[in-house]
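Hey, I'm writing a tutorial for new members on how sequence and structure tokens pair up, and I'd like a real worked example in the thread rather than a made-up one. If someone can provide the structure for the chain below, I'll link this post from the tutorial.
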Amino acid sequence: MQAFIYQYHKKISAPRPLQINDGNIAFFTRPVMETSEFLSSDDGKVWQLKFFINSAFEKTLFVDFNAPGDVPALGRASWYDNKHKASNDERLIPAASVFLRDSDTLTLARAEELTANRTLLADRDGFAYFSGDSDQFKRIVLCQALAIAYVQVITTCMADTTRSVLNNRTDETIALYENILRFNAAYYFTLPVLVGRHELFAAWRVLCDHYHLKVLSQELTQQLSDVAALLSGQREKQQAEDEAKRRAEEDAHKQALAAQAAREEKALAEQRALEKQALAAQKAHEDKADKRRGHMLSFAGLFLSIAGLFLTGMSLLSLLQLTPTQFFDNASQWKRWMSTSTAKKTAGSSQKLDEGPKPKG
């Protein structure tokens, strides 16, 4: 019996839960069982296996117990019936060597004895199993599929992380880092097989060493540690830059506030100067108005004085029983009298000057 593990395969028609020897799969630990799904075709010749369900690294693999197809297989396995006698393994090893290596160079020296009459030989991309029945062979094939799924996830994680770091994609690196940590915590187990299943537990350890799962896991862990250090350095650098930027913004804000305060103080001073000028102009205007009012009041006082004199005169005329017409007539007579008197005096003076002094004797 041979089995080939593929990444892709035609869809299974009428799939049903996988059973081996009419029994459900029950040799994996509970976390593995809760994140896996095992289906089989109706004839049991093709399996559809899902691992790491609901994770960023969910894997679906197919196991085909028919003849190998044209697509390269991820893994292969072959069962050799030794009739429950380990002594028969020697005559079966050449066929196993050809299956695994296409040569007869393999020997049983590299094989692992799982029980007294059961032997497992892992080489290259597969294994050969020598026993008296095929049921345990199928269970080991299922373990092999899980080991291959682990290898795919780990190598993909390392490649993706390397690429994101080289391309300076910090956000992508952080996302990968978180997903890988989540995968390591919830989906990757060094011993996914129940310890009580002695033969399968031993078989898993052989497969684990063959696929270098421990070494790959250590490399991934070291890479995660380096990435964490890198991200920490970048975070510290970013924090320093953010702090410098914050301080620069604070300084700029303070300078802007100081400039604003200076502008406001200048504007206030200008406003005060304008107000002072306005007050001075208003005072000058008021002084001018006061002066004008003073002149007007003086004129009014003069007018009132004249009016008072006129009224006083009129009152005196009234007391002298003079009418205004009489007053003006008398005034005209006094004026003519004053003019005549003045003319006589002038004429007298002129005559005296003409006669001059008389000569003596």
